[in-house]
Each structure stands twice: as C-alpha cells, then as structure tokens.
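re: ur question from earlier - yeah i can do the single chain one, its not a big deal. heres the input i used so u can compare w yours
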Amino acid sequence: MLMYNKIAAIAIAISVSILLLIGASAKDNLDLSKLTREDVIRTYMQPYTGTSIVGVDTSTLTGKVMCGYQGWFACKGDDCGRGWVHWGPGVFESGKLSVDMWPDMTELDADERYPTAFKHQDGRTAEVFSSFNTKTVLRHFKWMQEYGIDGVFVQRFANEIVDPLNLRQFTKVLANCREGANTYGRTYAVMYDMDFDAETLKRVKADWIDLVGKMEITRDKAYLHHNGKPVIALWGFGFTHRKWDSAETKKFLRFLRKDKIYGGCTIMLGLPTGWRTLSGDCRDDNEILRMIGMYCDIVSPWTVGRFGTLDEAANHAENIWKPDMEWCKRYKKDYLPVVYPGFSWHNMFPESKTDAIPRLGGKFLWKQYAEAKKLGADMVYQAMFDEVDEGTAIFKVTNDPPIGAFVKEPGLPSDHYLWLVGKAADMISGRSELSEEMPQR
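and the output i got, formated as tokens:
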C-alpha cells in the first residue's frame, strides 16, 4: 500500500506539472481583432475533462471558509490582449496604479512574471502576475490546498461579459479556477457582481445559461452545492448605488429557483450591511425583504470598511451580525458573514491614506472570526484572496514592494494570512476549538 501511495503521488505530481506547462503556454489562436462572442463560447465554454482530485466536501457550504477571488488582473504581454487591467487604469506606471499591495513573486516561474515600469529599492524591475495565466491560478489553488482554505467564489462582473475580449478574459479565468479546484481538491462557485436592472439581468441570465448548458459547470465535481443544489451568488442586491428593477429582479430569481434546466439553484445574495432594516447603503424598498424571504437561501451582507478597530468589530458582531443571524434563523436562511484583514486604496483614491484600516498583524481579522464563531457562524466569506486594489488580499504579498506607497507588515512572512485563514477555517469547521486569542505560529 505504501508503494502504491508513492506511485500515485508521483503520478499526480507529473499530471499537475503537465497541466501547469500546458496552461502557461497554450494559445487559443483566435484573431482578437475580429473576436466574437461565439468564438469565446466555442473556445472556452467547454465541459471540464481533466483530472479531479477528491478533497473538500463540495456538497455543502456548511463548515467552510470561502474566499472571494477577483481574478481580474491582466498584463501587457500575457495573451489576454487587454494590456494592463486592474494593476493600473490602462497604463501601469508611477502615478498611474491602482493597487496598494504588491504580490510576492518569489515562487512564480519566469513564464508567470510580467515586468513593470516600477523599480525596487535596489534597482530591480518589479514584476506582477496575470490571472489569465492558467499556471498562476493553479498555483493559487495549490496554496489553498496547502493552507487548508476550502475554495473561492469566482467573481464574474456583469459589465465585463459584454465585449467579447473582456468575456474571453473572465471566462478563461473561470476555466482556470475550475481546473485549479479540480486539480487541488478545492471547491468554487460563480458570483456575479451586478446591477439589477432589466438589461443587466437579461445579460446575466444569458451568460448563466451558457455556463450551465455549454460549460456544464454545475455538473463539475468541484462546483459548490448546498442543500442538494448548485450555488449561484449574486452580489450587489439592494444597494443604493446599483440599478434596480423590482419586477424584473423577481422574474430572474424565480428563474434561478424554478427553471427545470438552468435553475434549481441555491441562491446566495451579497447584500448591503443595512439590508434587514432597509437603512444605510440599502434601498428603502420593502420588496428587498420580500424577495430575500421568498428566493434567497444564503444571506451575506458586505462589511468591508464598515468597522476598523477591534472594539468596532466586536460591536458590529453584537449589533449587526447577531440580529441578522436571529432573523435568518427565524426565516430558515443560512448566514454567511464577511470578514476582511484590513483596508487600503490610497493609490486609487489619493485622498485616502495608505493602510486606512490597519491589519494589526492579523489580530483584526482573527477578532472577526472569533466573534463570528461565538455567535454560532458555521460558514464565512473571506474578503478577499487576491484583492490588492483595496488592500484586502490574503494571498502572498511582499514586504519588499517597489518604490511607492504600499502596505507592508515588516517581520511577517508573506504567507502569514494564508496560514491564519487556514487556522480560522479549522475553528469555523469545528476541527479546532474557539479561541479569542490569535494563534501563534
């Protein structure tokens, strides 16, 4: 048996190596100047046929910590064809950047590195990664496996699936995540970041039909299910700054719930903090609560930036999370609280200071996990895996960024937050006891 296990491990390692090499170098040979939606669908919306490793239980969200995965980073020279995306506003140079943290590139191979106009203190050219590169996304899922993080909600932006070139980018990223989840025994689900007007709802419905019918994602072994149904997450529901059409939204939710081919979903809604009281960043519209009651299965209010100290985190848990969870229990909904490690978006908005909400070496994040667990939370949304724009990333970031204004935590290893979230996942799942003190490494 020992010899068999060794042989199996070697076979898996070889398979992963081949997948990494293929993912890094493969090109689709599409003419991007003439790209159509049909080209993207034909090329990228195919069922998964690769290896699938048994890992986390993909049949339930209960007991899991799921990260948000933006996957929106593209680079000049990465085959995406869009140049710099989300590193900067079309260009990526001094005064033209939109990230407050710099990824740790030390583990990435040469074919995953894209040079920038930025320099380190010692004169070295600073490099970044592309989410379009399959090899890098698979590496991210390998990190999730290594540190015990269950999976991700893959962000799919409704405004990015209109133009064929943009659709190609985000569909390739979704395919990358699907491959990563299958290869490393993680799970994933689609999260649409969207408005709720008639035009957007029509667009998202058509896209979901393609993902289910052509890409067959909900049949994929790694795709997240809950209560026996595939999970679809809709983020932006009820926000005052999002477009809204009550009647069309109701039709769309009914479709996701009832359609015999493309529906039958467990619906998660990403909501404003003030959803329950129809206050703050939530529309003052009773239809919001009615639709949550009728169609929503998982309630997940956004909390990033809503509090910024340890005491404020405790107050939020007591005054917002607790009554939210009581409401959900009364109406038989699951509650998915959102936690985050800190916040910074100075390079996007210079009037905001760098490190606006300090991470405190992880104490700020751990406080939220402990408060959630004390209230009985059995699932958590971790904002975010790769969000270096708003300084909420938990993946490996460097304390040796290029010259400029970037968040650093000297003395902490670059994998500190991956390790910490893995420990938090143990606590949320019940594999370890509740601890109000942040664990020491």
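The mean pLDDT is 94. not sure if urs matches, ping me
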